[in-house]
Amino acid sequence: MTVNAMSILISTNNTAYLESGDVIKLPVIFIHGFPFDKRMWENQLLELKDEYRCIAYDVRGHGDSKAGEVDFSIALFAEDLIALMDALQIEKAVIVGLSMGGYIAMNAIQKYSHRFAGLVLCDTQCAADTAEAKGKRKKTIAFILRNGLAVYAEESLKNLFALASFQTKPQEVSFIHNTILHTPATTICRTLQALADRKETCKVLPQVNFPVLILVGAEDKITSPEVAQKMQELISGSELAIIPEAGHLSNLENPIQFNLKLKDFLKKFEQLS
């Protein structure tokens, strides 16, 4: 069985997704980071297709999902996640969120913790933007509106990847570079504003009562292993794994180790499959 490209209407908005595996198996839903799309999870969808029902979707405005007219917010993206689960008749799933995907998942926990069988937080954090970070995002929005995406894309790569990845993972670097360049500038600016406006979710983590795995690249410059450790301390019984030879995109930079940790974690749910 291969990965199938599909789309579905949710919340009056067309949402694109990739799916692999058998619909009767445990659902595992992957949420991409910013400003990427569902294709960043293709390796994981292929790796897990024999044991799980795997879904990776495009957050609205990204990839092949429509943006809609409403203002972007992490809370809106979280509602979209639940609406997608409803549309696909998924009552509970293991949610895997990287970076912005983690923000979306942690926001969804506040109202919909009963829809989570488990959670994997990858290269993300629960804290809101500082005033300095908000200011930087606003400056980035102004820069993009004035100059386009070329410089923004080049500068983003420097923070996203571990230094060695530029030599060892050129295809992955090129893939992310092209993904950024082909994301509409309006989507990037609207999402940057949503990221700046997001609320902290650290206070909900101690209430989590389902299995949680936290993964982080050893060389993540954006959300460091120290940040991941703080989240792990807030969630009773959670696991933390540091992915070597990886920066902020640990699933792309070291898929072997990433998949190994993910598969070990998912074994917890075999009785639900």
Please characterize this protein's 3D structure:
There is one protein chain. With about 270 residues, this protein is an alpha/beta fold. The protein has a single domain, classed as Rossmann fold (3-Layer(aba) Sandwich), CATH 3.40.50.1820. It is about 45% helix and about 20% strand. It has helices at about 40-50, 75-85, 100-110, 130-145, 150-160, 165-170, 170-180, 185-195, 225-235, 250-255, 255-265; strands spanning about 5-10, 15-20, 25-30, 55, 95-100, 115-120, 210-215, 240-245. An eight-stranded mixed sheet has the order 1-2-4-3-5-6-7-8, sandwiched between helices. Helix 2 (about 75-85) packs across helix 3 (about 100-110). The protein is globular and about 50 Å long. The mean pLDDT is about 95.
Summed up:
The protein has 273 residues and is α/β, with parallel strands linked by helices.
Write the topology of this structure.
Blueprint: E1 4-10, E2 13-20, E3 27-31, H1 42-48, E4 53-57, H2 74-87, E5 93-98, H3 100-112, E6 116-122, H4 131-147, H5 150-160, H6 165-168, H7 170-181, H8 185-197, E7 212-217, H9 225-234, E8 239-243, H10 250-253, H11 255-266
Helix pairs in contact: 2-3, 4-8, 5-7
Structural class: alpha/beta
The number of helical elements comes to 11
Q: Give the C-alpha Rg.
A: 17 Å
| Name of the CATH first level | Alpha Beta
Rough outline: globular
Largest sheet: 8 strands, mixed
Q: What is the first-to-last residue Cα distance?
A: 18 Å
CATH architecture: 3-Layer(aba) Sandwich
Which percent bin holds the helix content?
A: 40-55%
Task: Give the ordered list of helices and strands.
Answer: EEEHEHEHEHHHHHEHEHH
**Number of extended strands:** 8
Query: What fraction strand?
Result: 15-25%
| Overall domain count | 1
Low-confidence stretches: none
So, the CATH homologous superfamily?
A: Alpha/Beta hydrolase fold, catalytic domain
Mean pLDDT: 96
CATH topology: Rossmann fold
Strand arrangement, major sheet: 1-2-4-3-5-6-7-8
